[in-house]
Amino acid sequence: MMERTDRISVEIQKEVSDIIRNSIKDPRIPEMISVTRVEVTKDLRYAKVYISIYGSEEEKKNAMTALKGAAGFVRREIGQRIQLRYTPEIVFKEDNSIEQGLYISKLIDETMHSEKE
Fold it and tell me: For a Cys staple, 66 with which of 22, 28, 49, 109, CB 3.0–4.6 Å?
């Protein structure tokens, strides 16, 4: 059975993803961005939102700056969309797990290809 914080995390993940895609109009935020997971503290005061960004290091840095600047807006939107007694403070963190997975997959493919030759 899922805990309450887990259910809230999933709901916040959906809403933050929608807010980033449809409501934030900052040109520094690229199209290839996704919310990989959300961790909400037990007291529901903070929500760590892990973001995966596809692009150069400069694009990632600019996107994270834009998201951190929009954290208040995102929090207000979540407060309007999800009925909670207290809306958690949003903390954006960069998540490189997708890139790491692609890199490992590429290495495996190269190894398998070199063994066939």
Answer: 28
- The b/e string for 4-26 (b: 16+ C-beta within 10 A; e otherwise) is ebeebbebbbebbbebbeeebee
Q: Taking the mean position of all CA atoms in its chain, how far away is CA 51?
A: 3
> Which of helix, strand or coil describes residue 28?
coil
Q: Quick one: which of 92, 100, 102 has its CA closest to 26?
A: 92
Number of residues assigned to the chain: 117
What is the CB neighbour count within 10 angstroms for residue 36? 16
CA-CA distance, 75 to 47, in Å (whole number)? 10
Nearby residues of 66 by Cβ (< 8 Å), 6 or more positions away: 24, 26, 28, 29
3 state DSSP class of 91: strand
Higher pLDDT, 115 or 66: 66
Condensed to tens digits (0 to 9), the pLDDT of residues 100-117 reads: 888 898 899 888 887 776
